[in-house]
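[Automated response] Your request has been received and processed.

Submitted sequence:
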Amino acid sequence: MLDFTKVSVLGNDFIVFVSEAGNLKFDQERLGGLCDRRNGVGGDGVLTAVKIAAADNGGASLSYPDPIWRVSQYDRFGAIEKLSGNGACAVVHCVKEKGLVAHKRRDTIAVINGEQIFDVLVGVGGYGVNLSRWQLLTSSASKSHSDVERRDADGLDISIGKTHRVVQLVNKTELQKIDSGEFSEACRVSGFDAAVFACLEENPVQDGIGQIRARFYTGKNGELPADAEAAAAAALTLRRSFGRGGLLVHNWRVIVPGGRVAVRMFPTQDGEHVSVRTRAETVFTGSVAT
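Generated structure:
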């Protein structure tokens, strides 16, 4: 039998398998079956995490303490996909709860996915993850969607691991009106991984922290209650718009259907990075046949 942990990151739920010795391999059909909410465990995806030493990472030189975790992420149909910030937080929550890492109050745990490396900070208020450097692709998001244009929308196309078409709306009433067809059309027209619709709160800055609301949609999974990269893309877009008034805010609170995500932008030697802080919780544990 293989033990698993069902972990929810603000409603984005994963089936997590962890191994301290050896690889975890599943075929695509079985992974899809596990994610089936009627006949399987149920989840937005599957995560497998294998404990390795830094020296075992294909010869790569990593300045991380042992151990680190090599993670693979699969969507709800069993297809391999890039590791997400939510996925990285779910894995670290799982290995922490299992007692597989000796963490301090504020300790950083490294998870890797190919050349992708996430530093996940274990804190009192949840998990912080550095999503690395972001990239501005275009500033024409508002021109891609006729129904959104009628709302005097503004937006950006942003890459943070995944590609996001972000559309800024004028208020939360317009945000609530967006339906799945509009989300789907925004993804289809752009060809991007996710469509993000967001708006400033009525009181956009409180104690120096920007306040926004956002909703997310992916072509494969539909609307999601929370997504780390999409929340960061929303904050980056609205910072640009809000900054036109001369005030550039680098800390944001993004209200999403699943809860709240804290977003921070900060300078590094290779450009500006963006990080998020969110919560994760164990839903239940169980076992499946090998």
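Summary generated for your ticket: The first strand starts at residue 2 and ends at 9. The radius of gyration is 19 Å.
If you did not submit this request, please reply to this message.
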